[in-house]
Design brief:
By secondary structure, this protein is an all-alpha fold. Helices cover 30% and strands 0% of the residues. The chain has two helices and no strands. The longest helix has 15 residues. The radius of gyration is 18 Å and the shape is extended.
């Protein structure tokens, strides 16, 4: 069985767009699970010192107005700072 997971924010019309590559007429099961706004929930406790330092840095960054970025956004920022050069 093939599984597909995606996350989305509920728009004002409460309509959710399924991925275009999902075949028409296929039987699917959809589960709606409310996620916290911050995937790093308040009760998360790192087990290592490096984890505690990373979490403290993350919280400080967010408190100063920083915004979380996706892996693609981080890669784009690195590419921009390198003058458009890629890792390849």
């Amino acid at each position: 069985m093939q599984s597909l997971t995606f996350e989305t924010k509920v728009p004002t019309d409460h309509q959710v767009q399924l991925p275009d590559d999902l075949p028409v007429g296929v039987l699917v099961r959809i589960t709606v699970e409310r996620l916290t706004d911050d995937p790093m929930a308040e009760d998360y406790q790192p087990r290592t010192e490096i984890g505690r330092l990373a979490l403290a840095a993350r919280k400080a960054y967010l408190a100063s107005g920083g915004e979380l970025r996706s892996a693609d956004e981080i890669s784009e920022e690195v590419r921009r700072r390198r003058g458009g050069l890629s890792d390849e």
